[in-house]
Please model this.
Amino acid sequence: MTAPAVTCRVAVYRFYAADDRLLYVGITDDLLRRWAEHQKSSDWFPLAVRAEWTWYDSREEAAMAETLEIRRDLPEWNHAKRGPSHRISFRSPNDLWEQFGQAASHHPNGRSGVVRDFIRWYLSKPGAELPERPQPDE
Model:
């Protein structure tokens, strides 16, 4: 008698913000447990308004799909598995950089988030919008 084949269903899941920005891509064999973990400990979770997932029959297949999606779509909160990325530096007068930091403090990801949002908008990425500019001090 042969043992039955054990199948392992594994999900690749995606969380999106209200403006359809992809926040996070992950992999799990227990979607409800992983969802609860993100709810408790992920800074981005309060921004998520929609989730999608795709089931795979093997962890290997799911892991390949997850890595591909992360590298292709560059979710805002995934940092591992992105592959090569660039840490960019540029010169800015200190006073302008400080003012920008204060103005960008309303954004969940601060200055980096505003710059990323601007780049996505500038490149006409789907769902991208020009970052909201704060009102000048009266």
Summary: DSSP finds four helices and three strands in the chain. The helical segments are 31-41, 59-73, 94-103, 110-122. The two ends are 82 Å apart (CA to CA).
